[in-house]
Write a structure and sequence with these properties.
- With 152 residues, the protein is mainly alpha-helical.
- It has a domain at 14-68 and 104-140.
- Helices cover 65% and strands 0% of the residues.
- It contains 7 helices and no strands.
- It has helices at residues 9-12, 15-36, 45-67, 70-88, 96-101, 106-122, 125-132.
Length: 152
């Protein structure tokens, strides 16, 4: 079926979707990929703490951009679920949520990654103590721990 003139996929995307697709998502993937490729064992506590800050900042920016497209995704999921359950689904077939979420969704993988990071940190005593009890002199300038703006 041909799209009506002027209604291409790009034309139907709003500014929030374009920002997520062209800026926020690629930037987040790049930062995570860069840190995934590093040898963490050879890094100092300060370097690791700087990495955590960079990753948290990137995740916060990404999360903020996603908030603008969640209503669009939720509407699509609701319509797909309704259509599948009302028209397509047979008696012995799985519910629509299996197709929408899958068995290992992004939020579930994120929770697993956070747990893995916390477990790994516990195995590095100096880092664990530094994160649990940062001395005022050791907290990077701009850290929210000291009421700063979060910008170094």
């Amino acid at each position: 079926m041909e799209e009506p003139e002027g209604l291409s996929g790009a034309a139907l995307q709003g500014p929030s979707q374009r920002r997520w697709r062209n800026y926020s998502h690629p930037k987040y993937r790049r930062i995570v990929s860069d840190w995934t490729a590093r040898d963490l064992n050879g890094m100092t506590t300060d370097q690791l703490l700087g990495g955590v800050k960079e990753l948290v900042d990137a995740a916060a920016e990404y999360y903020t951009s996603v908030q603008a497209i969640i209503p669009i995704a939720a509407t699509s999921e609701i319509l797909l679920t309704w259509f599948y359950d009302a028209v397509v689904r047979q008696k012995d077939e799985p519910p629509a949520q299996v197709f929408v979420l899958g068995s290992d969704s992004e939020p579930i993988r994120a929770e697993k990654s956070l747990y893995d990071l916390a477990t790994w940190t516990r195995g590095h005593q100096e880092l664990a103590e530094s994160l649990a009890h940062p001395a005022a002199a050791e907290v990077p300038r701009g850290s929210s721990h000291l009421g700063g703006s979060g910008v170094a």
